């Protein structure tokens, strides 16, 4: 299947722009649920371990709630709408898309906290590879392809919590950049992520100086000192992996 995204993802280049005007490209009804494709969007699209933004789609006469924004199997981006008044919309209409700023800020903080855990683990001397990460409210975790004994987990929890507090206290700008050649990506990440589509470049996020960044399309805070606290809630072995569960205070 050919992957074709017709929608400009504005947040990638202008993450602090929370509203914009765009034109409707398509309207579909999926089992009674209306979904709208537009020429551009300020919304973060669900994926990469982060939930999508929510907000509103407005015209001069309508204000429709955007429940989530999703990417279809063919790569096209659709805004899932709650309201039945979608039938009043037509292809070609100009609409205003508005992100819920409060929810976006929450997602920024949780994702930045997760990346900070990854960086802090490295500053503690561990060179583990991240196997997966989830940055959802009330269900945030980072997993590694290792297992530890009970005593090792207790010690790691103490050291990691202390190191996170140190990093937040010192602060560090969050750097986001897109790289288009393999050598630059390896220089920034320490490896080349073959699992990422590199046709449009690889976006790398770095939350600590002198620590490798990670491939990431998510949204983030400007500086880690905007986090009040990252709480290491639990560290456990799960299905051959080490899972670090965390909470974010911001």
Automatic annotation (TrEMBL):
Record InterPro entries: Alanyl-tRNA_Editing_Enzymes, Thr/Ala-tRNA-synth_IIc_edit, Transl_B-barrel_sf
Origin species: Niastella vici
Protein name listed in UniProt: Alanine--tRNA ligase
GO molecular function: nucleotide binding
